[in-house]
């Protein structure tokens, strides 16, 4: 389960912490997860999926239903063109009696983007899994759909599974990560063309008021040097990527 720990310290009372199996993510403002989207990329580990899905609304996106089925996670809703799901997977979805939104494969938006459009309200806070592996173009689209979700009011908190995390830090936000075990790498990936005023503390190579650009993606393969790693950006949206 993704738990929420409200910090009771007077100076930090407005912060909240999301606790995942690999890490805890603390934000300056209150954050919670309202929905878990399971996509059709590399399936997350079943035990990991069960843990993060517990207590949350789960949507199966196309082949993501296969991961839900394998993990014994019952989705609340399924959505997609279902061009990559197996026949037993389709039968399993039908047997659940849940809402299923079927679309033609001839469409402008990806299945993931269609799901985001259905989550388009200011209260939506989304964890996305099943989003890694496979084709690069799919992963590229998944990552940059974070910005599309922001435009629609579907706020993505993380793209994650048991081995990879990407948490977007938006302008004016600060994120502090505490790890169960240190990741193999920490990388800062500008999702906006320019991210200004970037600060990184607690890593081997720190940053202070740095300017990072998509055209020069050089802030990669850093390592944690402290118990906590803190990232802040003043301008743009910055992806904090961790590989376990």
Architecture overview:
With 244 residues, this protein is of the alpha/beta class. The chain has 5 helices and 16 strands. The protein folds into 2 domains: 1-31 and 163-244, Thiamin pyrophosphokinase, thiamin-binding domain (Jelly Rolls), CATH 2.60.120; 33-162, Rossmann fold (3-Layer(aba) Sandwich). Strand 4, helix 1 and strand 5 (57-61) form a beta-alpha-beta unit. It is globular, with a radius of gyration of 18 Å. Residues 3-11 have low confidence and may be disordered.
CATH homologous superfamily assignment of the largest domain: Thiamin pyrophosphokinase, catalytic domain
Largest sheet properties: 9 strands, mixed
Our estimate of the beta-strand percent is 35-45%
Q: Give the strand tally.
A: 16
Number of helices: 5
Structural class: alpha/beta
Number of domains: 2
CATH class of the largest domain: Alpha Beta
Radius of gyration: 18 Å
Give the mean pLDDT: 92
Low-pLDDT stretches are 3-11
**Into which percent range does the helicity of residues fall?**
10-25%
Order of the strands making up the biggest sheet = 7-6-5-4-8-9-10-16-12
Q: What is the chain-wise order of helices and strands?
A: EEEEHEHEHEHEHEEEEEEEE
Return the CATH topology of the largest domain. Rossmann fold
């Amino acid at each position: 389960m993704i738990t929420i720990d409200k910090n009771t310290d007077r100076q930090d009372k407005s912060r909240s912490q999301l606790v995942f199996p690999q890490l805890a993510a603390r934000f300056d403002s209150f954050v919670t997860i309202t929905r878990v989207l399971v996509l059709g990329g590399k399936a997350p580990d079943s035990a990991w999926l069960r843990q993060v899905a517990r207590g949350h609304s789960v949507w199966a996106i196309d082949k993501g239903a296969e991961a839900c089925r394998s993990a014994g996670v019952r989705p609340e809703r399924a959505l997609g063109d279902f061009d990559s799901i197996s026949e037993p997977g389709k039968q399993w979805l039908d047997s659940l009696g849940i809402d299923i939104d079927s679309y033609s494969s001839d469409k402008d938006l990806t299945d993931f983007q269609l799901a985001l459009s259905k989550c388009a309200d200011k209260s939506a806070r989304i964890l996305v899994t099943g989003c890694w592996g496979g084709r690069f173009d799919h992963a590229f689209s998944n990552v940059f759909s974070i910005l599309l979700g922001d435009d629609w009011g579907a706020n993505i908190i993380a793209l994650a599974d048991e081995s990879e995390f990407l948490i977007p830090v938006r302008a004016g936000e600060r994120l502090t990560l505490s790890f169960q075990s240190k990741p193999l790498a920490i990388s800062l990936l500008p999702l906006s063309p320019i991210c200004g005023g970037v600060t990184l503390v607690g890593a081997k190579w720190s940053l202070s008021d740095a300017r990072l650009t998509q055209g020069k993606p050089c802030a990669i393969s850093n390592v944690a040097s402290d118990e906590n790693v803190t990232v802040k950006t003043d301008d743009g949206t910055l992806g904090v990527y961790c590989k376990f």
